[in-house]
Design goal:
By secondary structure, the chain is of the alpha/beta class. It contains 10 helices and 8 strands. The strands form 2 sheets. Strands 2-1-3-4-5-6 form a 6-stranded parallel β-sheet, with helices on both faces. A two-stranded antiparallel sheet has the order 7-8.
């Protein structure tokens, strides 16, 4: 069965381009389009959608609030944020609101298609190179980022006692996930197999009661476990 996609962007030309790319795929179909968050929510009332490609800054209702309302639904489709560098803080808010990942609007078609398939299958899309650049830009805006004493996160995220559930290795893996490294990159860095890294990531999600890798990134930065440019000293 095809992946049913809804395009949400106030720029018609961009929607047209995305539609053409998706239409060429045998496993995807664009079932709805919207020019803002209000139209997107309205469309979801009458159309079954699997994945929403969501712009961030739009009139009437922006992508952050639209994502939050969509993710509150029992039958919520997956949301994949499309962003640009000058809107990084909005993308972060959308991830907190429940989006399954983010991509840049100038992403190559192949990567966009892979991201849609990944999000549809339940994975989170946190592209390694994009994550590092994106988080480095908005991390100073997060709570505690500029506090001399480490802010709410304290040294190593003391304000999040659930982090104490992690083993030393799991905490190490979490910090690398938060820096945008893929399982393969983490495996190479720690001299582990990818299967072992995947197991560690799964245990991190379970222990911290998180949905996916996106939420791992959010918690690591908000708790102070990671800061822009790398882990805390």
């Amino acid at each position: 069965m095809s992946i049913r996609v809804m395009l949400v962007d106030d720029q018609v030309l961009l929607r047209t381009g995305f539609r053409m790319v998706l239409a060429a795929q045998p496993d995807m179909e664009v079932v709805a389009e919207a020019g803002d968050g209000v139209e997107a929510l309205e469309a979801l009332r009458s159309t079954e959608v699997d994945v929403v490609l969501m712009d961030v800054r739009m009139p009437k209702l922006d992508g952050v609030e639209a994502t939050r309302r969509i993710c509150e639904r029992d039958d919520a489709p997956k949301v994949l944020i499309l962003t640009t560098f000058d809107l990084d803080e909005y993308a972060f808010s959308a991830l907190k609101a429940g989006a399954g990942g983010f991509m840049l609007k100038d992403v190559p078609p192949g990567e966009l298609l892979a991201a849609i398939r990944a999000v549809h299958s339940g994975d989170a899309v946190v592209a390694p190179s994009t994550t590092r650049r994106l988080l480095d830009r908005f991390a100073p805006m997060l709570p505690g980022a500029g506090d001399a004493g480490g802010g709410r996160g304290g040294a190593g995220g003391a304000a999040r006692p659930e982090l104490g559930r992690l083993t030393e290795r799991e905490r190490e893996v979490m910090m690398l996930v938060a820096q945008g490294l893929s399982n393969g990159e983490i495996a190479a860095r720690l001299v582990l197999s990818e299967a072992t890294v995947k197991t560690h990531v799964g245990r991190i999600l379970t222990k911290l009661e998180l949905r996916d890798r996106v939420q791992v990134v959010v918690m690591a930065y908000e708790s102070g476990l990671i800061r822009a440019g790398g882990p805390r000293a």
